[in-house]
Design brief:
Length: 175
């Protein structure tokens, strides 16, 4: 995938990694692996890399049949639907290196927020969905989609902080 998508390889890979955490399903911590890899990929974006670096032993790995036969066609359908209502707006913004570095920081923050959300609370969904939509904006080169992704992720982080603080105070009353 990294050879096929070149610079958008970061967005495609992060989008695929954050799709499972974006689903409102209890995953029992399995998604933390995907979120950790997302943090590593976004760190590469922050450092200004133009293509995804992977260890040599990972480069030759094939995607499993579950991914190629089921997940990718579903994702392709959803991307196609969003592509129909999206159009390139503000494409010059996505050509700037500083923008991609900042988006790397945003994606890293969304992945960390999804990882630190209380388990089985469903609060990891919004930051992860924000990351997916930000990745779509990079692929589609649309600042409106970018704005939607930023709002989703920010609302998710706000919910995690608000509810986390409320739970902390509630538990503090009983202790």
């Amino acid at each position: 995938m990294t050879d096929r998508f070149a610079e958008e390889g970061f967005a495609v890979n992060i989008m695929m990694l954050m799709l499972l955490p974006a689903l409102p399903l209890p995953t029992g911590g399995v998604t933390h692996v995907f979120e950790a890899i997302t943090v590593l990929l976004s760190a590469q974006m922050v450092l200004g890399r133009r293509s995804v670096w992977l260890p040599d032993r990972w480069k030759g790995r094939q995607l499993g049949s579950l991914t190629t036969d089921r997940a990718i066609p579903v994702v392709a359908r959803w991307v196609g639907r969003i592509e129909r209502i999206s159009r390139p707006r503000g494409t010059w913004l996505f050509d700037r290196g500083i923008t991609m570095r900042l988006l790397g920081l945003v994606l890293m923050a969304f992945a960390v927020a999804a990882a630190v959300a209380p388990p089985f609370s469903g609060l990891d969904t919004l930051p992860a969905l924000g990351a997916v939509v930000v990745c779509l904006s990079i692929i589609l080169r649309d600042v409106v989609v970018l704005g939607v992704g930023l709002v989703l992720g920010a609302v998710g982080i706000g919910l995690i902080l608000t509810l986390g603080t409320a739970i902390f105070h509630l538990v503090g009353r009983f202790v």
